[in-house]
Amino acid sequence: DIQMTQSPSSLSASVGDRVTITCRASQAVSNYLAWFQQKPGKAPKSLIYAASSLQSGVPSKFRGSGSGTDFTLTITSLQPDDFATYFCLQYSSYPFTFGPGTKVDFK
Amino acid sequence: QVQLVESGGGVVQPGTSLRLTCEASGFTLSSYAVHWIRQAPGKRLEWVTVISFRGGYQKYAESARGRFTISRDNSKNTVSLQMNSLRPEDTAVYYCARRPEGNSFDLWGQGTMVIVSS
């Protein structure tokens, strides 16, 4: 199975900040990497697919990049609604595997 | 409204069975592969199983193989997950999600809680 790691596991930020989250796969997944946002008690919301493609309706403040084993999610101009947990998913091969998540909270 | 709604969760004893259903509204589910993903308390998300859009292909996680069965009824716009021989470690929120061609999971349901406890 492909193991997914994320860093940092949590970060504190302020409104207006730019934050970057990293996801690493234990083996190459090409660009079959997605990013999701999840708030407590809610279903995950898709942000990015194919490493850098923005899901329909998602604002361009969310940007994904990377290929192979190393990927990043950048969120610019953080707003109160952006404070949540973000996790990555590799869907290159079964079983699909998720990262452990990065919690973004108020500084 | 385009949405997926899971149902069928509950509290059951170890060794028993439960059937979860994922119902689509606002779109035709038969156009999509459908996956089940679960999240145990305090744990990362875990992919469980997938069924192709016509139902001819299924794949399971090792933890589900031989105990869980995914199926679909495209006439009812639903996908089901039959879970047998449940274990305490199956306790989780179970989500269904659709996966369009060339995309990842673009739409998730709100989840249904399964608790396996004696």
Write the layout of secondary structure elements.
The complex is a heterodimer of chains A (107) and B (118).
Chain A: E1 4-7, E2 10-13, E3 19-25, E4 33-38, E5 45-49, E6 53-54, E7 62-67, E8 70-75, E9 85-90, E10 97-98, E11 102-106
Parallel strand pairs in A: 2-11
Antiparallel strand pairs in A: 1-3, 3-8, 4-5, 4-9, 5-6, 7-8, 9-10, 9-11
Chain B: E1 3-7, E2 10-12, E3 18-25, E4 33-39, E5 45-51, E6 58-60, E7 68-73, E8 78-83, E9 92-99, E10 107-108, E11 112-116
Parallel strand pairs in B: 2-11
Antiparallel strand pairs in B: 1-3, 3-8, 4-5, 4-9, 5-6, 7-8, 9-10, 9-11
Short description:
The complex is a heterodimer of chains A (107) and B (118). Chain A is mostly beta strands and 107 residues long. Chain A has no helices and eleven strands.
Task: Give a verbal description of the structure.
The complex is a heterodimer of chains A (107) and B (118). Chain A is mostly beta strands and 107 residues long. Chain A is 0% helix and 50% strand. Chain A has no helices and 11 strands. Chain A has strands at 4-7, 10-13, 19-25, 33-38, 45-49, 53-54, 62-67, 70-75, 85-90, 97-98, 102-106. In chain A, strands 2, 4, 5, 6, 9, 10 and 11 form a 7-stranded mixed sheet that branches. The radius of gyration of chain A is 13 Å and the shape is globular. The N and C termini of chain A lie far apart (36 Å). By secondary structure, chain B is mostly beta strands. Chain B is 0% helix and 51% strand. In chain B, a hairpin with a 5-residue loop joins β4 (33-39) and β5 (45-51). The radius of gyration of chain B is 13 Å and the shape is globular. The termini of chain B are far apart. Chain A binds chain B through residues 32, 34, 36, 42-46, 49-50, 55-56, 87, 89, 91, 94-101, and chain B through 35, 44-47, 50, 59, 61-62, 95, 99, 102-111.
